[in-house]
Amino acid sequence: MTLLALLSQDGFTLTKTATTHGGEYAGLCPWCGGNDRFRVWPEDRDGRYWCRGCGKSGDAIQYLREYRGMSYREACELLNITPAQHQGEHCQERTTFTPKEPAPPPATWVSKATAFLKMARTALWTDAGSEARAFLCGKGLSDDTIKKSGLGWSALDYYRTRESWGLPTELKENGTPKKLWLPSGIVIPCFVDDIFLARLRVRRPEGKPRYILIPGSDTRPMILNPDMEAVVLVESELDSILLRQEAGDLATIVALGSVSAKPDATTHDLLNRAQIILLALDSDDAGRKSSWSFWNDTYGRKVKRWPPIEGKDPSEAWQNGLNVREWIIAGLFGSEKKYERFCIQTIDGGLSDAEALREALK
After folding, report:
1. CB 117 within 8 A of CB 187
2. Could you read off the pLDDT of 111-141 as tens digits, one per residue?
3. CA 122, CA 134: separation in Å to the nearest integer?
4. What pTM did the predictor assign?
5. Of 7, 162, 215, 359, which has the highest C-beta tally within 10 A?
6. Which H or E element spans position 230?
7. Nearest to 189 by CA among 106, 98, 259, 255
8. How far is CA 177 from the centre of its chain?
9. Segment 305-343, tens digit of pLDDT
10. Are the C-beta atoms of 49 and 36 separated by less than 8 Å?
11. Number of helical H runs and strand E runs in the chain
């Protein structure tokens, strides 16, 4: 079976555009969806492909493994060849992703961080915190959402000894102890199971880097609404809070913290159970590059690239007029009609959200 035949089976139609390497075909990329960026040479070295947009490349074996999720041996059997006959670059089995267990902060850190967050939450709702509240409202967050998410605000920079927060001593180059810096700005907590404080991040009003992770914090992704069948992956915690506010009844929202972050064991299990994953990382260069490889390779065809439109992230898109709920609905269901079917099945049909989503996505 040729590479062109495999692509045709999966619904991709390519057009011959040149005679290079025995014939060159172009069409829609199976991974990034880029039109006329995907190139296939079916006669060159038993068939190979390359996308000018996302960089995906390989042969028929690699296509079956990356797009259809087959093992190397399964792909060889489908193509009726033996591993010894296959001379491509990807003869070995793909390395399985093994998530790391996050390291929870020490008890002293949790106690100190909780006290600092309590102070910051109180300060946010004073007259002095009005500018910070206006910033959060400008990102689409309601007062109720701000309160439920536990956001706070610190007016000043604070410096504490690391030891007083239960952290080991670290020395500067000159040999003096480093201080624990608690910068001024919007304080963003991350809770595990909505109870255990695991992380503090501060969004500074100015200066770089704009976001500061408080030392000792747990780096696991933030998970909001963990029991849904659909998952939306974003970078920023503030973006995830906005999406939970607007579409928390439709999907679990996961904030990675950065485009290079990987799932921990809990998040990995959640993603494996999900029926569909919308990859909505920031649509800048870093976000795009992260979208092309790890997520599709690890979780297969249920990953759908769904970058924000009208902005580099969901919050900026909301500020530019995007209805983020409709954007999520379009990503999950593809049409308002499928969404209506989902609603009817949960309200009138007596199905659970999981069952209704499964039916609506058929």
Report:
1. yes
2. 999 999 999 999 999 999 999 999 999 999 9
3. 16
4. 0.71
5. 7
6. strand 230-234
7. 255
8. 37
9. 888 888 889 999 999 999 999 999 889 887 666 767 777
10. no
11. 14, 16
337: left (phi over 0), alpha (psi -120 to 50) or beta: alpha
**Which is it for strands 196-203 and 158-161: parallel, antiparallel or unpaired?**
unpaired
The three-state (H, E, C) secondary structure of 256-287, written as one string: CCCCCCCCEHHHHHHHHHCCEEEECCCCCHHH
CA 287, CA 300: separation in Å to the nearest integer? 18
CA-based Rg of the chain, rounded to a whole angstrom? 24
Q: Token pair 């006669």 is at which residue?
A: 43
Which H or E run contains 238?
Answer: helix 237-247
Tokens of 72: 């190397």
| Whole-angstrom distance, CA of residue 108 vs CA of residue 110 | 5
Bridge partners, residue 199, by sequence: 190
Residues facing residue 39 across a β-bridge: 26, 50
Indicate the residue type of 230. A
All domains in the chain, ordered by first residue: 3-79 (3.90.580.10), 107-213 (3.90.980.10), 222-360 (3.40.1360.10)
Amino acid identity of 206?
E
